[in-house]
Amino acid sequence: MGIRNGRRARRKWRRRYCHQNIVQAVNLCHESQYVELRKWLKERGFNSKSLIPALFSDTGRGLMTTKSIQAGDLLISLPESCLLTTTSVLSSYMGEYVKRWKPPVSPLLALCAFLISERHLATGSQWKPYVDVLPKTYTCPVYFSDEVISLLPRGLRKKALDQRDEVAKLHSSSLGFFRSLQPLFREPVESIFTHDALRWAWCSVNTRTVYMEHPQSPHLSRERDVYALAPYLDLLNHCPEVQVEAGFSQVTRCYEIRSVQGCKKYQQAFICYGPHDNQRLLLEYGFVAPNNPHSVVYVDPGDLQMCLSGTDKQFAQKLLFLKQHDFLVNLTFGPEGPSWRLLTVLRLLSLQPDQYSSWKSVLLGAAVSHDSEERSLQLARMLCQYLWDENATALQSVSLLKEGAGASTREQRAVVECLRLEAQGILGHSQELLRNHQR
């Protein structure tokens, strides 16, 4: 439809909606929890002098360089003895209980149960210095209140509720296994392995582990075992534009991260979790990356229904056809405007009854007629305006949560607000592109 400007459009969008602020950092090296963590890690063979913990004004806690890191240099190399894996669990005091339980527990549950136990043991925990620096709570949707979840975009809202159900089901299905651990504790296990405790451990594993493949254990379920909790290394924050090479070295027996671009002295060192958009980052990691080049605004089938159903008597049948052929997934607005897939769906929705036979041509990018093209562009404008209005309403609701909110709700509100602000910038730019094309 000729409304894209490629890299030029992306650069223009970033100039308009992305602002660079001066970042301030406070050294955390001398705080007791980090002193204890570094001492504990040194005993296990790790002694990093090039990265120190710091509190940054833009990202919160992270790692700061004490010297320049050149392109190709090792950023961090964490010995295997420092990694918390299912091997650690199976060789611990909990190992025999895990091995005896049938059917076998999953690698995820084994790690969660061990984390909960270690947190409960407090000073008796061998992993105490690490557990002490783990977040006490998270801003993943599984922690969100119903009120905050209601402020998420439609598609993400459903995924957030699914995430909450997943953790609830994991807890209820694991009660028998938790009860089998009673000989390890003086207190009733029901007071230790609570839903809240499992939620915390589940988020700790899902947001902080590095990818590391392990051989299939006969004592665990057949789910892939790819988790490794990496103390200190997991303080590295995500930046979508950073490039690193990461993995476990069979030669050095360390988990190593090598910088591709390098990093200046006294700046925050970043890694990249992958080319994820902000909805995925929020769902899986509990944060939003400002100025994320992978940011998009998803169009849910429900959005199409709410916005466009009154434009065509055949709309319901067309939508059913699109759903049956899996055309209603990954529909987005991005820095370049509506995606090719979204435009294709809008073209199909714009077909008149005598043009239905042309649907295969539309899928190949062909224009059926000038009138059909204009109708599809009008649908794009209507849809973009609908999403912009919905997003603006959500932002107003988010601001109302500030009044009298507790710390947890404020944190949840802040991450949702950041997501919505990013979306508002994308939708505003898409509106401009669509208006320019109209002229």
TrEMBL record:
PROSITE patterns from the UniProt entry: SET
CDD domains found in the cross-reference section: SET_SETD4 (cd19177)
InterPro entries: Rubisco_LSMT_subst-bd (IPR015353), Rubisco_LSMT_subst-bd_sf (IPR036464), SET_dom (IPR001214), SET_dom_sf (IPR046341), SET_MeTrfase (IPR016852), SETD3_SETD6_MTase (IPR050600), SETD4_SET (IPR044429)
Recorded GO MF terms: protein-lysine N-methyltransferase activity
Keyword field: Methyltransferase, S-adenosyl-L-methionine, Transferase
Pfam families assigned: Rubis-subs-bind, SET
All copies of domain SET, residue ranges: 49-274
PANTHER family assigned: SET DOMAIN-CONTAINING PROTEIN 4, UNCHARACTERIZED PUTATIVE METHYLTRANSFERASE
Annotated protein name in UniProt: SET domain-containing protein
Record organism: Megalops atlanticus (Tarpon)
Lineage, top ranks: Eukaryota, Metazoa, Chordata, Craniata, Vertebrata
